[in-house]
Amino acid sequence: AIVMKRHVQDGAAVTPGDIIATIEGPSRGLLTAERTALNFLGHLSGIASVTAKIVAAIAGTKASVACTRKTTPGLRVLEKYAVQCGGARNHRRGLDDMMLIKDNHLAALSGEGLIAEAVHRARRASPNLKIEVEAETLEQAEQAAEAGVDIVLLDNMTIEELRAAVKLINGRTQTEASGGITLENIREVAETGVNYISAGALTHSARSVDISMEIQS
Fold this sequence. Notes:
alpha/beta; 8 helices; 15% strand
């Protein structure tokens, strides 16, 4: 018996006082659903809002912003959709979207040439998936590029290290900066020349937007 009319579309900018939807129906039903609906709406709008600010901060650079899998259990699809509404891209929705070789994977191997060996195993296991390798040093970044990965994830590097890594890789593969990304430093990170910047804070640290429901008699 409840009917909702939307006044703005997902991803549209709004200001305090704007009416985003009107809902008609029995008051019992409206009040029963009110808090759950507002919790979802406020949380997801918060993610979209902080994402939009970060995307705007790097306008004019070649970098694009992506979220990570640091999402609330059970809400990944919704939170990643909110990131898209804010103008950014999704990195991976799940482990089956792309092979990401991290430090723990390398630690599970032994011998020389761990990155090359890990990439070889990944290619053999899933030849159709893109492969990304996490690099914490310039040496690891070079090894990943030499191994022919699709993306090198430059993890927690300084601005100087990011510039050096981009120069070292020299277009042989795409680069992604991650770790410690904030609204204050993301412009400087983007200007190092990386292709992507991923930020877990888009989903795990966004503040909820204050949205309320007011009943009109």
